[in-house]
Amino acid sequence: MKWFRKGSKQEDLSLYNLIQHFTKSGDFIHFHNPQSPKPYWISYYGSLVDAEIVHRDILPYLQDPNISGYEDFQSAVPIEKVEITSDLETIQKKMLAGSVLIQFSENDNKGALVRAEMNKAREVSIPEEEFSVVGPKESFVESLTTNLNLIRKRLPIPQLAIREFTVGTLSQTRVAVLFIEEIANEENINTVLQRIGDLKYHQILDSSYIAQMISDNENSPFPQLIDTERPDRVAGVLAEGSIVILVDGSPHALIGPTTLVKFFAALEDYFINWQLASALRVIRLFSVSFSILVTPVYVAVLTYHYELIPRDLMATLVSSRSLIPLPPFLEAVILELTIELLREAGARLPTKVGQTIGIVGGIVIGTASVEAGLTSNVLLIIVALAALASFTTPVYKMGNSIRLIRFPFLLLAELWGLIGIALAFAFLMGHLLRLTSFGRPYMEPIYPPRLEDLKDAFIRLPFKMQPKRPIELQSPDTIMFSGKKAQEMNDIDE
Questions:
Q1: Mean pLDDT of 134-157
Q2: What is the rounded CA–CA span in Å between residue 180 and residue 193?
Q3: Rounded to whole angstroms, how far apart are CA atoms 349 and 493?
Q4: CA 82, CA 74: separation in Å to the nearest integer?
Q5: Does residue 48 contact residue 96 with C-beta atoms inside 8 Å?
Q6: How far is CA 163 from the centre of its chain?
Q7: In terms of DSSP bridges, do strands 253-256 and 226-228 run parallel, antiparallel, or are they unpaired?
Q8: Which of 23, 114, 267, 361 gets the highest tally of CB atoms within 10 A of its CB?
Q9: 3-state class (DSSP) for residue 85
């Protein structure tokens, strides 16, 4: 048994020895009451059990003179699933999950397990990372039961299936896989269930652990599963045919399979009219491209390609760099690293202090570096705009990936100019084209080209023009609703 050292004798594997092993812990309670009509022993972990349940729903019924054994106690206690067992593995597992063990003899090899776990959880609050002005304001919390409730009330259908696993040899973390039967692709379901079932790790503290372990390519800087804290987003993707993974103790859900363009689609896009949503989505895609390329292009042009600079702009650049002792590459690296330092410092400090450090630090360091002649004011503006553009990505982890890939582009721009940038772009596209999410192409609908899915990719067309589910999900039920019926609008006078 897991709670005994190697070399323990088989006859030592008894419930009595298990209780004695548990009593070594300071929060374990083992109490004997010889004064009751039927003397009993009660054992439980005080840190896991709700004391109110013990005193209200268990102890009073142990004083009943009609209780003569475990079966009488099982029928008397007003708590469901009172289990009478002699299996030591089951007893250990249930007690470590918050159950109370009742024995009527200290040497009994069986006992009654009563559920009395303490449920301490944070209240449902507004989203912090995916906040939207329009739409619901609920976000997931650390309790898996609460998170499942938030999803169930949005999808009150029997087809919503939940498969639970226990992952982590030490943490014993509950992991739930959600999908809608007859809508989600069977191959996708089996892939997720198989990968989570095969996980062998000592502890799972957050859904991020799961995301790294079950991704198709763990060496890629790009996330292959969408990380979200919004139950409304989860309900929406489940209806499309996606698979969702929830982890007990984590306020984030994982969505897959997914594609690159979905990381730039904010949930708020579906709460506003399609023209504005499409414009905002195009702005996000442009901002990401600008954030990656603008600093490398600046370095490449000033280092190798002076002829590309307009004559009117040349005078401004020459005057801004006339007293700068550093080459453009080192100048850009210093400013990029400064931005990253300020961003990390702001993220690690308390909220109010972090905001102050970010604003004041940026102004002070930027002004001081320009006045000291270490950087040019033109590059300072460019780097600041690039940093600002990177914040437009709706998914936080994709924003981190964009921050990282700027530096290889910058290095190749220094080595080979615009040719280096083209080479970096070729490597990036080659990597993205080979990337998959649960075996599905990551660059869909760009490659393979699927015109049907372009209706909700770079732009968002009206709902009535999107009657089918995304092709990359390979749903057996491809039709979400009738497009023709959605366009029928009978006049009130008819």
A1: 92
A2: 14
A3: 62
A4: 6
A5: yes
A6: 18
A7: antiparallel
A8: 114
A9: strand
Q: Could you tell me which of 6, 25, 252 has the C-alpha nearest to residue 127?
A: 252
The region, left, alpha or beta by phi > 0 then psi within -120 to 50, assigned to residue 435 is beta
421 or 378, which is more confident? Answer: 421
Q: Give 244's DSSP letter.
A: E
Cβ proximity of 200 and 247 under 8 Å: no
| Average pLDDT rounded to a whole number, residues 157-172 | 92
- Integer-rounded Cα Rg, in Å, for the chain is 30
Using alpha carbons only, give the angle 420, 426, 428 rounded to the nearest 5 degrees: 105
pLDDT (average), residues 129-157: 91
pLDDT at position 11 is 44
In the block, residue with structure tokens 């009509």: 37
Residue type, 196: I
Residues near 179 by beta carbon (within 8 Å), at least 6 away in sequence:
160, 161, 188, 189, 238, 242, 243, 244
Whole-model pTM: value is 0.88
Tell me: pLDDT of 493 over 70: no
127: left (phi over 0), alpha (psi -120 to 50) or beta: beta
Closest CA to 120 of 19, 49, 190, 221: 49
Closest CA to 173 of 140, 208, 135: 208
Determine the pLDDT at residue 484: 62
Q: In the structure, what pLDDT confidence band is assigned to residue 8 with cuts at 50, 70 and 90? A: very low
Q: Is 211 exposed, middle or buried (0-12, 13-18, 19+ CB in 10 A)?
A: buried
Among 48-52, 249-253, 313-317, 326-330, the range scoring the smallest mean pLDDT is: 313-317
Distance CA 212, CA 223 (A): 9
- The total of other beta-carbon atoms located within 10 Å of residue 194's CB is 10
Distances (CA, A) of 56 to 64, 116, 158, 226: 14, 11, 35, 44
28: nearest Cα among 89, 95, 83, 91: 95
- Which residues, including other chains, have CB under 8 Å from residue 236's CB and lie 6 or more apart? 267, 270
pLDDT tens, position by position, 78-130: 887 789 999 998 999 899 988 999 999 888 889 999 999 888 778 888 888 88
